[in-house]
Each structure stands twice: as C-alpha cells, then as structure tokens.
Amino acid sequence: MLTHGVPQRRVGIIGGGHNGLVAAGYLAKAGFRVTVYERRAVLGGLCVNEAVLPGYQVPTVAAWYGMLRPEIMADLGLTLATYLPNPAHISVLGDGDYIIEAGTIAASRLAIAGVTEADHVGLAALLDEVFRAAEVLWPHLLRAPVSQAAFVAELNAAGLTTIADMCFTASLEAYLRRFITHEKLIAAYLVETFGPPTA
Ligand SMILES: Cc1cc2nc3c(=O)[nH]c(=O)nc-3n(C[C@H](O)[C@H](O)[C@H](O)COP(=O)(O)OP(=O)(O)OC[C@H]3O[C@@H](n4cnc5c(N)ncnc54)[C@H](O)[C@@H]3O)c2cc1C
C-alpha cells in the first residue's frame, strides 16, 4: 500500500500487554500499519482487571497505578482516570492474620499474632527507607545508566545507609532481617509488593 507515495510498512507486535500497546500506538502515529497479536482473550497483559469471583472485578497481577509516564498519556491522547484503591493492599496470611495497607500509618493495620512493638517500629523504618530509596532511583529510569558505586553513593548521601550497603550485595531476606524479626511478617514482605507505611 502507498501513503503519499511512500510504501506503508507493516509491523506485527507479539503481546498486547501495556508495552506492546504503547509501542503499537506510537508506531501507528508514525504511519505504520500495526497488528497486535495477543494470545489471551483480553488485552493488557499483567495490567488487567478480571472477575476472580462473581461480582468481584480486581487487578489480578499488577495493582498499583503510577508508572505510566504522563508524556506517554499525552502523546497517545489517553485520558486515564487515576484510581487509587483504599485500602491499597490487603495481605491475608492465614490463621486470622492480615496486613492492610491504607496509605497512612494511622489508617493501616498490621494484625499478626506475636508481632512485637519492635517489629512495628522496624517495619515503619524499613518502609520509610524503601520509599525514600525509590525516590532516589526514580529519575534514573529515564537517564543513561550510572555505575553501582555512583548509585550507592547517592543512596548514602540521602542517608539511606542500610539499603546502600545491601541493595547490590545481599538478599531481600537479609535486608528485611535488619529491621524485623517475626517470621510471618518477613515471609509476607518477601512475596508482596511494598506498600505504604503500616503500623
Ligand atoms: C506479581 C507482579 C506484580 C506487579 N505489580 C505491578 C504494579 O502493581 N504496578 C505496576 O506498575 N507494575 C507492576 N508489575 C509490573 C508490570 O506488570 C509489568 O511491568 C508490565 O505488565 C509489563 O508489561 P508488558 O507489556 O511488557 O508485559 P505483560 O504485561 O507481561 O504483557 C505481555 C503480553 O504478551 C502476551 N504474550 C506473551 N507471549 C505471547 C505470544 N507468544 N503470542 C501472543 N501473545 C503473547 C501475554 O499474554 C501478555 O498479554 C508487576 C509485575 C508482577 C509480575
């Protein structure tokens, strides 16, 4: 096919997750004829809402909104409403134990039998360091990579010394054990996304 005398090129994108869809959007804007091949019946990849039980439509994998860059939304003419669920995160841990993360320490609940005051304090310190480290990391996502040493220096300069010491050299479990001791709490934070402060 010719468009204004230029052969229109065709592109196939395998996978209709949000990266495939964003790439398809930019390529289509640039004049390509794009076909997205998705193996599932729904588009969106891991970032979809699905009915897990009748009447319960929930994000089945990725649940936290915020990483889709505003300039991409503007470029593609997307008008997505920001929807922040409250509570943001619920971990059901069995035996009646649970963690509800609701955006603030006051609104959150950590209900695990045997958790000590030291665990509460340690968890708050842990989450504070993780979220402050994320603020240091975030601008790097759109920059040329820096060395490990340079990034560690940035973390240390921000006073984030534990994560600076451990992020490239230790396991997540070892990092968690610097702050908390309750085994169920450690297990919960080994498998779940880090949510807002909990106390
Ligand atoms: C447990 C978990 C939790 C996460 N939570 C969050 C979160 O809360 N917030 C957040 O922003 N990000 C989260 N992420 C990350 C986010 O899900 C990914 O960054 C994002 O889904 C990547 O998008 P993608 O399009 O590259 O891949 P995917 O979303 O994985 O999409 C790939 C698509 O390709 C399809 N596909 C694969 N192979 C083929 C094939 N051969 N033929 C046809 N189709 C194919 C798949 O079916 C799928 O639809 C999470 C990831 C995980 C694993």
Ligand species: flavin-adenine dinucleotide
Low-pLDDT segments: none
Sketch the major β-sheet. Answer: 3 strands, antiparallel
Multimerization state: single chain
Tell me how many strands there are: 9
Task: Name the beta content range.
Answer: 15-25%
Q: Tell me the span between the first and last alpha carbons.
A: 62 Å
Overall pLDDT metric: 88
- Secondary structural class: alpha+beta
The tally of helices reads 7
Which radius of gyration do the C-alpha atoms yield?
A: 22 Å
Basic shape: globular
Spatial ordering of strands, largest sheet: 7-8-9
Helical content band: 25-40%
Order of SSEs:
EEEHEEEHEEEHHHHH
Q: How does this model look, in words?
A:
This protein has a three-stranded antiparallel beta sheet with strand order 7-8-9, with no helix packed on it. A two-stranded antiparallel ribbon has the order 1-2. The chain has a two-stranded parallel ribbon with strand order 3-4. It has helices spanning 18-29, 70-75, 117-137, 148-157, 161-166, 172-177, 183-191, and strands spanning 2-3, 6-7, 10-14, 33-37, 49-53, 56-59, 89-94, 97-101, 109-111. It has 199 residues and is of the alpha+beta class. It starts with a strand and ends in an 8-residue tail after the last helix. The protein is globular, with a radius of gyration of 22 Å. The structure holds flavin-adenine dinucleotide. Flavin-adenine dinucleotide binds next to helix 1.
